[in-house]
Design a protein that fits this description.
Helices cover 40% and strands 23% of the residues. It contains 17 helices and 22 strands.
């Protein structure tokens, strides 16, 4: 097997090539205005659609559900309007009757995923940005090859850029063992040339999704890699310490799993031009719990920004509090305006951001927005105990989201992304407890303290400001 290329060298040249390609091929695309795009859809959909076990809830039942979900002093009508707008944005229903388990780090996520895969009887579908040939990746590969040998249909989509440091022989061995594998948007030497009609190389599949037997799904931020430090290069802000990475996943059981299965199979069909190998992808799913779930996805290259607009809609509908944890935070004008407006109308807005990062550009690019946010009353914290890679939010103690979407323009404009929206006071309490733990390990960035930051910090922000569109 050929030795791994130099990580720093590989990432440097890939970043250079991707940024060059982005300028050449992406033009001046911008995030559409949410109001002009979705106003008419929201007006046409006065109440959300809820389904479960093949049945659509009546309007009376929907109103009853909204009443049960509301918190004291918060309006059920506001929640219903928000859910209707969210449906207008993404076109997919809320699914009732699910059980959601919060997995707060990669070891916990891996244990649950691998256990589910070991028990697979019919099919395993995986869509992943980074799959490395290290201990975690090789452990997964052995499991997949064994299940394929047992007659289970195994389908794997990996991103060719996110897995650039994984040797092709790793994937060849999976194929030879009966695993159906394909690379999303393969990177080739000619792939960065600006030929008309060619897909831009900056369009990536950033989703993290594992589905077993069509009955259990894992969604979140965790790639399959023993450590990101091997591929991330220098970690800014850690003073040389070897810190863990903070990821968040959810394990979903119940009727909503079918919605995530549809998204995986759609990607397979669109990218490969053929249906996935026949299997029992959609078994009858009985209710497993009380959580409402909506599966929301962005797709590359089009006008589909559903994840982002659903997030904006939730912020705009907030009445009490907004708690966000974001790995890469380089917001556009709409998001900054939504957050500052929420704070000024009395909503408690708190955001946990990384103090250490593998991307100096993203770290300092995001800090360009600190002053504006702090001045409006938004509370900002930088996490010190780990490298933040989570992408989560909980709003008003009822609406939560966990997934792969970063709050930066690269993620919003150029990636396939996937988030689970969970509407549940019970799950929101678990998310709030996780958020409080993150705050305990974070340092608050105050307005007075930020005004005293060093000239070097200000210079780095100034230098990255013109690049925020590409971060």
């Amino acid at each position: 097997m050929a030795p791994f290329p130099s990580i720093k060298t590989t990432r440097f040249f890939l970043l250079f090539a991707f940024l060059a390609a982005a300028f050449l091929l992406s033009g001046c695309a911008s995030v559409p205005n949410m109001d002009s795009t979705f106003r008419y859809r929201a007006q046409a959909q006065p109440v959300p659609t809820i389904i479960s076990d093949g049945r659509r809830f009546t309007r009376v039942e929907v109103r009853s559900v909204m009443e049960k979900l509301k918190r004291k002093d918060l309006s059920a009508e506001n929640l219903a309007r928000h859910m209707a707008l969210e449906q207008a944005i993404c076109g997919c229903p809320l699914v009732a009757g699910n059980k959601v388990t919060l997995l707060i780090d990669r070891p916990a996520a891996y244990r649950a995923m691998f256990q589910a895969i070991r028990g697979a009887k019919n099919n395993i579908n995986i869509e992943i940005f980074t799959l490395l040939a290290d201990k975690a990746g090789c452990g997964l590969a052995r499991l997949l090859m064994q299940k394929a040998a047992d007659g289970v249909c195994v389908n794997l989509i990996y991103d060719s850029f996110g897995s650039i440091c994984t040797p092709q022989s790793f994937f060849d061995r999976l194929r030879q063992s009966g695993v159906h594998v394909f690379a999303f948007n393969p990177i080739t030497p000619l792939g960065v040339l600006p030929f008309r009609g060619r897909r831009s190389p900056v369009h990536r599949d950033h989703r993290k999704l594992v589905i077993v037997d069509g009955s259990v799904a894992f969604v979140g931020s965790a790639n399959i890699a023993g450590t990101y430090a091997r591929t991330a290069g220098p970690i800014i802000g850690t003073e040389g310490k070897k810190l863990p990475w903070l990821d968040t996943e959810v394990q979903i059981e119940g009727p909503a799993v079918a919605e995530f299965q549809k998204l995986f199979l759609k990607t397979w069909l669109v990218e490969r031009g053929q249906q996935a190998t026949k299997a029992n992808y959609f078994p009858v799913l009985q209710p497993q719990g009380n959580e409402l779930i909506r599966a929301i996805a962005n797709t590359w290259g089009g006008k589909n920004r559903d994840d982002y607009f659903a997030f904006l809609a939730a912020i705009r509908s907030a009445q009490d509090f907004i708690d966000i944890t974001s790995a890469y935070f380089v917001p556009d004008e709409q998001l900054v305006r939504a957050l500052t407006n929420a704070s000024r109308r009395g909503v408690a807005v708190t955001i946990v951001l990384p103090h250490g990062s593998d991307s100096r550009l993203a770290l300092y690019g995001g800090r360009n927005f600190y002053m504006q946010l702090l001045d409006s009353g938004v509370k900002l914290y930088e996490y010190r105990g780990a490298i933040v890679h989570s992408k989560t939010a909980v709003i008003d103690g009822v609406w939560s989201t966990v997934g792969s979407m970063n709050l930066d323009l690269w993620s919003i404009l150029r990636n396939n992304e996937l988030n689970a929206v969970i509407v549940s006071p019970r799950f929101a309490k678990a998310m709030e407890a996780l958020f409080r733990n993150e705050l305990d390990n974070s340092e608050e960035i105050t307005l007075q303290g930020w005004e005293r930051r060093s000239p070097m910090e200000r210079l780095l922000e100034l230098l990255t400001n013109p690049l925020v569109y590409w971060l």
